[in-house]
Design goal:
Distance between the termini: 72 Å
Strand content: 5-15%
Strand order of the largest sheet: 2-8-7-6-5-3-4
Number of helices: 18
Oligomer: single chain
Largest sheet: 7 strands, mixed
């Protein structure tokens, strides 16, 4: 039973209720009582957070989609979602071996029935042998299954030519999970920590910075030079940031999201040198490393370049991320991935391990998908022929659409799009008539937000306004994925050209 003295709110020193206290006046009416948690009492940082790829345009798209199901009439038959990198939502088929290994691990009786190739059976047995109780239903180590982390280390060593330490590898529920944990760890309550973020950027960074009370220090990518990272802009950014915060972290997304550029070895080396000179930890978001389309372009990891640099970089802090959501797997809903942490001492790693332990463990099916990602079938394996066929089909299809979006958008007057070297997106700049501002303000939107909303209402295509990613003031963009089927994508580009010309003509006449 609760202590009555503790219950006497507004009591005097002896615990007796005063005439004005709730105990004297009786219980507060449930009609007048505010709920303990409501919009007014919730953490204000949650209200400040923005996440554009699932923002207002998407909510409107979902309403329209539901209306279509109920017989609503629109000038289109369906909503096409080009707002988020979610391949299987818009037609990409799962890679067979991922589902086979997952199914065999979830139902081990399948291993005895001869329904799967021998390499699938062998892999499933290896994973289950490492799982506690031989079951994926048991919690794993908070860093993930040791067999999968070992395979991640082997993948990294094969890619970069230098050994990886399994104790510095953490499996994740998608890269976003690790990014949030790392930014939280880097932002203690005392002082104001700055996080350098590319503009345009992926909104998980700005959302996390807001959530944990850090300060964003933007550095602008150079659109005129294929979204290049300029060394002078980096220097200016960190100097601006030091006037209001303590810059501690720099984020690089390579290949770029939403910009699609691929960094060269020389670019990467310069970024590492900059961070070393300025005392910054570097986050390398490399989840699109399989998505390279431009001839001559190639993915080079920050880790590989770092390992080729001098002994003065031995303790340089680099955290790299990879994910099963992108590449050719496109397993977004399964939530898998990993992070590798270089340059951190054992005491820090122990504390980060403790933080991960509060989430118990990454989901086990995501760990299975990660295992296939880092250890795909090899030419002599029974599963290889089908795997190679499926992988090529995905990547070749994306490369074709990357070229298509670049060529078709640049044919539209008032639209300029850089070549999509990698990732899954185009980020074209559009000229929007200033005369549309009045209608945009009436809708409670930025000019590019209103433009995207009208595109949705008129053509049924959901894209994301550039203001959700950041852009140089006075310019307007939108982000579209290149993920829809080729047929849908061709129609989308044709519809966009028609929409843009009519939208521009409408407001130029007004």
């Amino acid at each position: 039973m609760l202590n009555e003295r503790a219950m006497n709110v507004g009591s005097g020193g002896n615990g007796a209720a005063t005439p004005s206290s709730p105990a004297a006046s009786g219980p507060v009416s449930s009609r007048s009582r505010s709920p303990p948690l409501c919009l007014e009492t919730m953490n204000p940082r949650v209200k400040e957070m923005q996440y554009a790829v699932r923002g207002r345009i998407l909510l409107e798209a979902l309403k329209i989609e539901e209306s279509l199901k109920q017989g609503g009439r629109y000038p289109f038959e369906k909503v096409l979602y080009a707002n988020i990198g979610n391949p299987q939502e818009v037609g990409q088929r799962p890679i067979t071996i991922v589902r086979q290994v997952a199914a065999a691990c979830l139902d081990p009786s399948l291993l005895e029935q001869g329904v799967y190739p021998s390499d699938v059976v062998q892999r499933a047995r290896e994973i289950l042998a490492d799982a506690k109780g031989g079951s994926l239903g048991a919690y794993t180590d908070s860093r993930g299954l040791s067999v999968v982390r070992r395979h991640v280390a082997e993948f990294i060593e094969s890619r970069d030519g230098s050994p990886a330490d399994v104790s510095r590898i953490f499996l994740l529920n998608g890269a976003s999970d690790g990014i949030k944990a790392l930014i939280m760890t880097a932002t203690p309550p005392e002082g104001r920590v700055g996080v350098m973020v590319p503009i345009p950027q992926y909104p998980i960074y700005t959302a996390s910075i807001t959530e944990f009370g850090a300060e964003m220090a933007p550095y602008y990518l150079d659109e005129e030079r294929q979204w290049a990272i300029d060394s002078q802009e980096l220097k200016s950014s960190v100097e601006r940031a030091r006037k209001s915060c303590n810059p501690r972290v720099m984020v690089v997304i390579n290949p770029g999201n939403p910009t699609g550029q691929c960094l060269s070895d020389e670019n990467i080396r310069g970024i590492i040198q900059f961070c070393h000179n300025e005392g910054l930890m570097l986050i390398a978001d490399e989840v699109y490393q399989e998505n390279i389309y431009q001839k001559g372009a190639k993915f080079v990891s920050f880790r590989k370049v770092l390992k080729s640099m001098g002994p003065e970089y031995k303790e340089f802090q680099l955290v790299s991320f990879h994910s099963t959501s992108k590449g050719y797997l496109g397993e977004c809903g399964i939530r898998g991935g990993y992070m590798e942490m270089l340059g951190f001492n054992d005491l820090f790693i122990d504390q980060f391990y403790k933080l991960c332990s509060t989430k118990l463990c990454p989901n086990s099916i995501g760990q299975v998908a990660t295992d296939v990602m880092v250890k795909p079938p090899q030419p002599n394996d029974p599963s290889f022929a089908l795997f190679d066929q499926e992988r090529r089909a995905v990547l070749e299809g994306l490369a074709k659409k990357a070229k298509m979006v670049y060529e078709e958008l640049n044919k539209v007057p008032g639209v300029r799009c850089n070549e999509v070297q990698g990732s899954m997106y185009a980020f074209p700049q559009v000229t929007i008539p200033e005369e549309a501002w009045e209608d945009a303000k009436s809708a409670g939107l930025q000019l590019d937000g209103y433009y995207c909303l009208e595109f949705l209402k008129q053509k049924g295509v959901c894209v994301v306004p550039g203001s959700g990613f950041g852009q140089i003031p006075g310019t307007w963009h939108f982000r579209t994925t290149i993920l829809p089927t080729e047929e849908d994508f061709k129609k989308m580009l044709k519809d966009f050209a028609d929409f843009h010309c009519k939208f521009t003509a409408k407001y130029k006449r007004s």
